[in-house]
Task: structure prediction
Amino acid sequence: MYSVIVVPPRGTGSDDQIRLSAGERLAFGRSETGNGLAIAHEGVSRIAGEITAHRAFWILSNLSQGQTYVVENPEGAGEHIKVAPGRLDAPVSFEFSRVVLPAAGELLSFDVWAPRHTYRSATRPGLSGATTAQAFSLDRTKRYFAVLAALCEPRLRGAPHAPPPTVDQLVERLRHTWPAANRSSVYWNIDYLAVKLRLRPAPETAEPGPRLYGKKESLVSLALRFDLVREDDLVVLAAVPSEVAR
Amino acid sequence: MNGRSYAVPVPKGYRVGLWEVREPLASGAFGSVYAARRVDDGGETEAGAAEETAADGGAGPLPRHAALKFLPTGTRTPRQLHHLRELAHREQELLKRLRSPRLIRMYEALTVDDPQHPELDGATVLVLERAEGSLAALLDRSATPESGPALLAQICEGLHQLHHAGWVHGDLKPANVLLMKDGSARLADFNLAAEMEGTHAYAPAFSTPDYTPPELLWSEISERGQQIRPTADIWAFGVLAHLVLTGAFPLPGGTTEARCDAAVRYARGAEELRLSSGLPPDWREIITGCLASTHEERAARYPDTASLLRRVEQVAGTTRSPRLPRLRPRRWLRPALATGLAAAVLALAATVTYAMRDDGPTYGYHRCPFRSVCFFSEEFGMGEMCSWKGDDADWLSGEETCMWTRDRPVKSIFNNGDESMGLAGVAYYRGRDFTPVGEDITRKNSRNRTGCTAQRAQGNLTGTYAPLSHRWIEHCGDGASD
Result:
């Protein structure tokens, strides 16, 4: 029932993602008090700030004395918000965020995901009462959607039993629209999709075998079963002409 | 999903089977409902020829007026509306098999065969009992209708009938409660209904958030869908009862998202349930029980829907509904159909198709569909049955499963194939992916399989093992069976 996931910075000793339910708070800072997120760096305030999951988004309080925090949208082409010192409950509307803390000349960061952002269709006329909604809401402009589309492409193009593409094939397929794609970023997006679609781990994952294959396979089955990706969605894979002919 | 509407525009006067479409009645998330009247000219229909799929002998005489529900299952958009076909199938299946006074009645199911209208061609049309309106429309006119308690008792009775027959509604809300001419209520819209398999049912991953219990709001979803239990309907009933009696949702918030957020905080124990002060004490007790924050608490409070119904009828002051006959005697009553349904629903992009039979036999070898191989949990084709048209590399996972074999052996088998398939035998293996396990590895037949059954052969199996995979092969080799 969590709605926000905090991913601690690498090399801080804690690799565990912290899942926050609506209303739950997570303090971050140098001191390791309680269940907070410890950022062991001299340049970070003892209690540097607080993250609160609020509905499907989250709010950030900057509790530092004089440092402005920046929340970047890594997929947003430089899109960011600044949170001034002392600012409480600043809402963050990005699905993916990187919280950047300046600390004695260095920039420290950790990630926060908000995979429960909801998208619903506009109310249609002549329809009374609450609408039945699908349990998934995907942002079609995000890279994970392109990855999902690429995963489903062989089957959508008419090969119903085709195995999902390999990660290398995915990298190659996505390169037109996402030149920086590489194996690890594609892996990352596959893992994120499993979180986003709340994929129940298959019962056989405990056994030896190609685990990632199972995950890709499950994502494709789920996506096609519920029409999360359709044939006309494959346009997200189409190359956008980078130069206009003169 | 994301602004895609599945409304089906049907021109007035359009003919489907014996029915002429009149004015639109409603449009929901999955299709559109139109008023229709029966035309008994017996002549050729100009447009909208339809083939009947219901094959339901017990439907009785058709009424003069009905409601036609169009579900856009056509083939105009290949591979695109897979889940709609599944949802249409669920509703049709439930209505075909259940007939209870508090559930809307289906007279027949038709498929539009009209290449002239590609947007309608292939659509599924359910011919349903015509209602006067919905509870949602009634609540729009009067937030707390005087008939509220009596309607709630009838809605609860409908839920009881559904649960008693082994189904979960999955989308109980005012728009899905229809009111008949005499003012009585009936449950409708079974697109999300799911038949119980043991303690759970698998429902498609749709819901109406305001009526969804907190444990399902952001629950895990497997390839088969979302696991739901009857207590999900109990929660929805609690929300609906609060709405009908007080005009407001039980959880605070001005938007659906805010109320879901409140539901999650309540389930976490971070917030208490504060029901409207206008609620009579008896109803407060009922609704508090329905809105217990976990499945376990709800199940403990109301072990079955009958106990909830008794209490609701007591408080509503209505007469007690008659005790229902046992509809679902034992788990093996309709396993063939249950397995077939689950498999058909899951036959994603697979070549297998399952023959659905309305009133086929419920025991014995002869329930095995034509051109299928069937495995039974008891000797002589008795007990539970799993059937396949094709191969399956893993019985316990994947798109088709045969879960009873997890802890029970296969006792008999029937290869109901025919010559047209070109594959005369079915070989089965104790390992996944057609591999041998245990003593089969050194088995003398040198084929390392557990067994093989030839075309049209049926019989009991010795041993206490369950295969995990099987495939069709050209022939079993020497002898009919090994």
Q: What stands out?
A: Residues 431 and 448 of chain B are 10 Å apart (CA to CA). Residues 42-49, 51-59, 326-361 of chain B have pLDDT under 50 and may be disordered.
